[in-house]
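Morning. Coffee machine broken again, so started the prediction first thing and wrote up yesterday's gels while waiting. Chain of 436 residues, entered below exactly as on the submission form.
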Amino acid sequence: MATEEIGVKNKQLGEEQSNLQRAEGDRVGLEAKVASLQGERDGLEATVESLEGERDGLESKVETLQDQREGLETKVDSLQGERDGLETKVESLEGERDGLETKVDSLEGERDGLETKVDSLEGERDGLEATVESVEGERDGLEATVESLEGERDGLEASLSVFSDDNSGLKATLQTLEGEKRGLETQLEEFRLAHESVTKLEERAEGLRAVVAGLEEDRKALQVSCRKMFPTCTGSMEPKITCLDTVVVLQNFRSEDIAADTVISYYPPNQMDGSPVLHRVTDIKIEDDVYYFWPKGDALDEPDGHWIPESNVLGYVIELQQGTRPENSALRERVNGAKERYVSATGNMLEARDEYDDKAIAYCGSVEAASSCSTTQGNLLRLRAVYDTFSLAWEQYLNAVCEYDKAYYHGIHESEPLAGEMFDPYVAPSVCSQTS
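Came back before lunch.
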């Protein structure tokens, strides 16, 4: 389950890192696009400034041509003695021309139109000079001038149409530039928001890095290091764990993970070799930040009798593989049988001793006084009978102790799969006969 959680968290971390990379890529693209648009805007501003300069120059040239035109108009007026009809028509055409010139003046903002207008005015000036010469010479020249002015008027009207179209185009360009400006402002706002998002993502990534570091640290504890151990045929953990089984012990454990009822493998104090003990924890204490465990065998009446520091613990059982060593069946039966006889003999001995003590106290006042007790012959016979029973029970108890001690010794040394290894021969306690 922990591995699955780590997998899910690693996957989530990968997705968050991908999102961060995409966001960073988007940010770089937005920055490049903003820089490009700013460059285009600067170029357009420079172009506008250049056009404005050209416009001013053209306006100055138009004013000069207008002055020249007015001089020519004055010269034409001096010829008013000639045909009234022609003069009237010339004046009418001049009025129309002045109107067209006024319209041309209104289009002063445009470069291409102004250039066309300058060309037209220069042509008009030449035409007016020719007209003056023609009017001075002959009426037919004036008629030609009229026709020329009519053609000029048509040209000016065409120029006016062109100017109007160009003006519309420039307005559309201005609208486009304004739209691009709004787009740039929008992109700038998006860039600012993206930058804020990237900052938040970076903060979140920093938090994720801390989480990943914590997960990496936790994963070290989840990288299980374990070993198989083989319970010996002592019967201390019967019937849940026997020497027919194999247990898997977690070695890279944390002391705080060991709780009461956990089966630990340990060496008793002052012993760090030989076969370790495999007993269940019944109590835990902590002194100076060191964990101590109070173990007891399931089949034993009393606990082991010593606190086990965490440094003596080899690990705790995480798996029980039952029935994996059937070759120990005979040895297990021998040890368990000897233990049963020991338990039975102990009970009989204690019962016989208690009966003898009761009789000695009743007949003699104390157990110590039984050897020199003054009582009736019947009481002595009864005391002698219970003493003989106790003596027999004691002898059977000693035989059972010696038998169990020997079986226990062989159960420890012969039940582990230590092929080819030798162990010292059994030496019976001094109270045991050498034949047991």
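The longest strand covers residues 277-287. Going to sketch it on the whiteboard this afternoon.
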